[in-house]
Amino acid sequence: MQIFQDLTIKGKSPELESFAREIETSLKDNWSRNRAMEEEVRPLDRSPSWCFAFAGSGEKPAAFLWLAYREPNELYVPNIVPAGTDRLSREQYNSIVQEFYEEFVKDAAHKTGVRAELGREKVELEDLLSKDTAQALRRFSGLANKSTGSSHPRDRTRWEEFLISAHREESTLAPDELERWLIEEQQWPSDKASDLAIEYEEAMSLLKAYDARIQRA
Q1: Residue 191: what are its φ and ψ, rounded to 5°?
Q2: Do 196 and 169 reside in the same domain of the chain?
Q3: Do 25 and 92 have their domain in common?
Q4: Is 90 domain-assigned?
């Protein structure tokens, strides 16, 4: 399943400031720094941030890539905002951040001594769930009637096995990630995938509340 790639840069604060300056001096072709947009957000966020404008190229639309502090010793790309289109696809977002990394970040990191890391572009279900819980979800999805969701008694049993397993391991799988996996990897109808994601979110909340009540008893 494709995800938005993270880009993080770690180092001491003076090195990070030098890194950002090095990025600006190396910009070329379709890239430039947009100080006007930086000034617009400054009243909302006093910590330093940098806005790099990408003019667009080929399948990659024009956009604004932001670089900001996440921690005192860490910069990251919190977002890439499209300049004209309503939103960027994951493919477009990742292609822009990859170009920024390859063209400017790697060299600037080498010169200033910071450590830059571009995250993964795709994750597997087993990256989000334990092996047993992932197997329970795959078993439900593979055997379920995709037109009825979890309503059939046998499908319901397998679905509940997944929910209980996910709760026991304190799953961090987000409902929207579950919905995307069902649609993109398992070809579920979008309405049924949405229903299951809602059921999952409600079940995790209910089971967590139940555990808390038992502990207080």
Answers
A1: -70, -40
A2: yes
A3: yes
A4: yes
Max intra-chain CA distance, the chain: 65
Whether 137 and 199 map to the same domain: the answer is: yes
Q: How far is CA 18 from the centre of its chain?
A: 27
Provide long-range contacts, Cβ within 8 A and 24+ apart, for 121-124: 121/2, 121/3, 121/5, 121/94, 122/1, 122/2, 122/3, 123/1, 123/3, 124/1
Instruction: Assess if residue 1 is contained within a domain.
Output: no
Examine the domain organization and report whether 135 and 210 are in the same domain.
yes
The two tokens of residue 5 are: 């790639």
Q: Is pLDDT above 90 for 44?
A: no
pLDDT in tens, 99-142: 999 999 999 999 999 999 999 999 999 999 999 999 999 999 99
Looking up residue 91, the CATH number of its domain turns out to be 3.30.310
Output the pTM of the full model: 0.78
Residue 144 shares a structural domain with residue 111: no
Q: How far apart are CA 10 and CA 186, in angstroms?
A: 37
Residue 107 vs residues 8, 17, 24, 101, 117: alpha-carbon distances, Å: 15, 15, 12, 9, 13
Contact 108, 22 (CB under 8 A): yes
Average pLDDT of the chain to the nearest whole number = 94
Instruction: Answer yes or no: do 99 and 150 share one domain.
Output: no
Q: Tell me how many domains the chain contains.
A: 2
The answer to whether 70 touches 8, Cβ cutoff 8 Å, is yes
- Dihedral of the alpha carbons of 194, 198, 201, 206, in degrees to the nearest 10: -160
Please choose, from the candidates 76, 92, 65, the residue with its C-alpha nearest in 3D space to the C-alpha of residue 4: 92
Residue 84's pLDDT band, with cuts at 50, 70 and 90, is confident
